[in-house]
């Protein structure tokens, strides 16, 4: 099957215009190429939204792609019609989906269609696949080996096209909750800016936003091996219900001034359970709950920015260091702010997409 035929079948499936034979053909291709399964899944999620307003641009994008394919006959995809110039052209709905899907996958002009909500932006590059989430959204990714990753807002997951054949290795920026399929022959490896995690099969959460002061790994089930990037010879084994915290800023300081030991850059704590269901705060975002325990207001503000896709600017130093406990589930940003005011009095005003917090 040619690549163009593949995209046509995907578009027809999303548009619900594929016949039984075409669905069989597509399913067979997916079985032969499991690395495409997660991309298809996310494309279907993305296009559970209205068609783009500017359908002409979608059609033009698709036709431009076809015209650039050397040696291929576009008549295999669209039959030419002897239609007068001034008459209305009737274009099948799947054409718009094909154009939009192609644009998304190659990773350019995504803003052309301006969807009201996008669970994930999927990029397929020459050597790697990439999934990213916008602030205020989450998505679930099923990797070719069956492992599942939930991505929190403002996060990105990258893995090679050869994933699962020789190794299972991904890179994470942001926060991800992993349920890894067990495979003793092919370990699962996660790379972040500060740490490297090696697992065989387990459930755990990794929080590694570049703007955060800490990188956190919380083990729910199984066993993992963590290597800190500036200490390759020191390997840390985590057991269930343990949380590894790496101080990102201190690691960088120790790299430059090796003779000075400020405070330990690494700590291991026990996870704290939340009554009544004995869950832990670190993975509650997967259940659409923003849970914070002993967080400073500054740390909570970052969490809320990713959760609500809004900027919070705290002008008071004393407010930034105030520690808070609580959780939000269905609250709007306004309701959440009012709830926080019950913990510590402060005032706010909004300027564009930024809420200014002051005393």
SSE series: HHHHHEEEEEEEEEEEEEHEEEEHEHEHEE
Record field, number of beta strands: 21
If you consult CATH, what is the topology of the largest domain?
Jelly Rolls
| Cα-to-Cα separation, first versus last residue | 64 Å
* Poorly predicted tracts of residues: 48-52, 68-91, 103-119, 260-264
Strand content: 25-35%
CATH architecture term of the largest domain: Sandwich
Q: How many discrete structural domains?
A: 3
User: Strand pairing plus helix content: what structural class?
Assistant: alpha+beta
Major sheet: 14 strands, mixed
Any idea what the radius of gyration is?
Answer: 24 Å
What order do the helices and strands come in, and which of them pair?
Layout: H1 3-14, H2 20-32, H3 37-46, H4 55-67, H5 93-106, E1 121-124, E2 128-132, E3 139-142, E4 148-151, E5 156-160, E6 168-179, E7 188-191, E8 195-199, E9 203-208, E10 214-221, E11 224-228, E12 231-238, E13 242-247, H6 248-256, E14 266-270, E15 273-274, E16 279-280, E17 290-296, H7 297-308, E18 311-314, H8 317-320, E19 323-328, H9 333-343, E20 347-351, E21 354-358
Parallel strand pairs: 6-7, 18-21
Antiparallel strand pairs: 1-2, 2-5, 3-4, 4-6, 5-6, 6-9, 7-8, 8-11, 9-10, 10-13, 11-12, 13-14, 15-16, 17-19, 20-21
């Amino acid at each position: 099957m040619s690549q163009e035929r593949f995209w046509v079948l995907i578009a027809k499936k999303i548009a619900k215009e594929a016949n039984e034979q075409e669905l069989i053909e597509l399913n067979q291709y997916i079985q032969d190429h499991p690395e495409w399964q997660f991309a298809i899944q996310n494309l279907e999620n993305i296009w559970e939204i209205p068609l783009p307003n500017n359908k002409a641009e979608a059609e033009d994008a698709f036709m431009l792609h076809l015209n650039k394919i050397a040696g291929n006959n576009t008549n295999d995809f669209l039959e030419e019609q002897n239609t007068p110039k001034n008459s209305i052209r009737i274009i099948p709905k799947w054409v718009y989906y094909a154009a939009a899907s192609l644009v998304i996958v190659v990773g350019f002009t995504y803003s052309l269609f301006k969807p009201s909500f996008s669970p994930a932006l999927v990029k397929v590059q020459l050597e790697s696949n990439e999934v990213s989430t916008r602030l205020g959204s989450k998505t679930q990714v099923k990797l070719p080996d069956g492992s599942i990753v939930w991505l929190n807002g403002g996060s990105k997951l990258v893995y090679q096209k050869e994933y699962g054949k020789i190794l299972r290795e991904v890179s994470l920026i942001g926060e991800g909750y992993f349920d890894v399929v067990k495979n003793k022959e092919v370990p699962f490896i996660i790379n972040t800016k500060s740490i490297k995690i090696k697992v065989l099969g387990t459930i755990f959460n990794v929080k590694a936003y570049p703007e955060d002061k800490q990188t956190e790994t919380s083990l729910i089930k199984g066993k993992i091996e963590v290597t800190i990037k500036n200490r390759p010879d020191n390997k840390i084994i985590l057991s269930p219900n343990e949380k590894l915290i790496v101080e990102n800023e201190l690691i960088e300081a120790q790299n430059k001034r090796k003779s000075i030991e400020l405070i330990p850059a690494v700590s291991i704590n026990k996870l704290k359970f939340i009554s009544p269901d004995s869950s832990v705060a670190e993975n509650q975002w997967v259940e659409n709950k923003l849970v914070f325990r002993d967080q400073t207001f500054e740390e909570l503000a970052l969490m809320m920015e990713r959760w609500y896709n809004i900027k919070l600017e705290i002008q008071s130093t004393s407010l930034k260091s105030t520690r808070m406990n609580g959780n939000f589930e269905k609250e709007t940003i306004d309701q959440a702010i009012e709830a926080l005011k019950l913990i510590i009095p402060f005032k706010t005003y909004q300027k564009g997409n930024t809420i200014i917090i002051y005393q």
